[in-house]
Amino acid sequence: MRGLPVRAGKALAATVIAAGSIAGLLALTPLPIADADRSAAPDLSRFTSQQLTWKACDVEEIDKAGAQCADVTVPLDYSDPGGRTMTVAISRYPSPDPGKRHGIMLSNPGGPGGAGLDFPLTFGAAMTPDVRAQYDLIGMDPRGIGRSAPINCEWPEGFGLQSAGVDAASYAESVTRQADLALRCANTEGDRLRHISTRNTARDMDLIRAVLGEQRISFFGTSYGTYLGSVYTQMFPERSDRIVLDSAVDPARYGAVQMVQDMGPANEAVFGSWADWTAARDSEYHFGTTRDQVRDSILGLVRRAAEQPIVIEGLAVDDHWVPMIMFTGIDDPRNYGPVAANMRTLADAAEGKAVQPDPQLVKDLKFILRSEPADNSGQFAVMCGDRAVERDPTWYWRNIEAARAAQPVFGAFANNITPCAFWAPPLEDATVVDNSVPTLIVQSTGDTRTTYANAEGMHRALSASRLVTLENVAIHYIFGRYPNTCTYAAVNDYLRTGVLPAADMTCQAD
């Protein structure tokens, strides 16, 4: 660990003590623990016999597509099906040719915390007409998200992930902030938090299957949705039909620590590609004519924001958030221009110049810094409810410092502490995924969110799976987002026939 300034060292020490107190408070909060043995199937007859009321979704693009929505009543706690309940909102996009219908396909757009009522509009558009005809596509807002009794911790800021900043004083601010976010969730949501988990969402999916009168479900998930899909196949293998996992999480590394750590090297590599692209356009963006010059310019901007936050339309952007603006954009090479323009806006504003920021940048900053229109606390309810993490703030600090040399832009983000360090322990152990349900995994080699190594981990965990690799493309989520003839054909062929490719396959960019 590098030497700490006296001010920073004292701030860090004080914060660690305070954070430890909050962690202890949360650990001792009297929240009910479910029965340790959940192996016995609960009696869910009061739920499986319910009749759904289908109605307009009141979302223009969903209603135009001919879909309808319904609320499904589910147990809050599956170990106590006679206890409290909650509702899960689903959408149904019926097969355009019922005579060719094969079954239902549930879906999840990722996050965790992504609302999914409109998700079938995206991946459904990538299906060929004959494949689309085989399925009623089912969108779902998972429990605690969107219209499904959403978690709302009343965070003052919107985003739970942030960079640790440039030094120990900045990291101390992160520790204090993350502890405060966790405490707000405990105070506002209480014991309900501990039932917002992937295992319970998988149980909800199987309950939805039963309510809809189906024997099996097909599934399309991307990003976190791939973990949800794999947990479903582990818990309900005999009810799993055609499963597609696009941009996969390694189930052994899923959570608020390892999965995020994996993003550091991947984003740093893609930053290099973005820096090359930007350097070739120095006359427009003025960050330098080489990759190293562009990197130095961006790191200088982060340091400047630490000394004096950059103000964009009244929103103060400091060293915790400058890297996150890049992170949210470089998961798609088609966004390199907007990312460069946003960074130029920040640099100009830091120099006191008048700027006209892109409206999307302002919208993103309002979400991050002001929790507008809502916070992202549901994401952490899921992640923290799924897997316990290291609680010692000094452990994260050591990882941050160790990562800075190889990951100067994103290491402080990928290794930073999160609210999960101050969360009450999960009710259940994390799911060990290890099964032979036939599954198609689709992954790009340059994915910055769920890395290619994560997809390989999922491939190993699902022994009967096939892996379709999109080579030399840095894209997160392919089918329905990034047109590619080869990968689209592989997905459609599998969904059409239910037969996986004979072997793993590699695709190239069109």
From TrEMBL:
<protein>
    <submittedName>
        <fullName>Alpha/beta fold hydrolase</fullName>
    </submittedName>
</protein>
<keyword id="KW-0732">Signal</keyword>
<dbReference type="InterPro" id="IPR051601">
    <property type="entry name" value="Serine_prot/Carboxylest_S33"/>
</dbReference>
<dbReference type="Pfam" id="PF08386">
    <property type="entry name" value="Abhydrolase_4"/>
</dbReference>
<dbReference type="GO" id="GO:0016787">
    <property type="term" value="F:hydrolase activity"/>
</dbReference>
<feature type="domain" description="Peptidase S33 tripeptidyl aminopeptidase-like C-terminal">
    <location>
        <begin position="408"/>
        <end position="507"/>
    </location>
</feature>
<dbReference type="InterPro" id="IPR000073">
    <property type="entry name" value="AB_hydrolase_1"/>
</dbReference>
<dbReference type="Pfam" id="PF00561">
    <property type="entry name" value="Abhydrolase_1"/>
</dbReference>
<feature type="domain" description="AB hydrolase-1">
    <location>
        <begin position="106"/>
        <end position="257"/>
    </location>
</feature>
<dbReference type="InterPro" id="IPR013595">
    <property type="entry name" value="Pept_S33_TAP-like_C"/>
</dbReference>
<keyword id="KW-0378">Hydrolase</keyword>
<comment type="similarity">
    <text>Belongs to the peptidase S33 family.</text>
</comment>
<dbReference type="InterPro" id="IPR029058">
    <property type="entry name" value="AB_hydrolase_fold"/>
</dbReference>
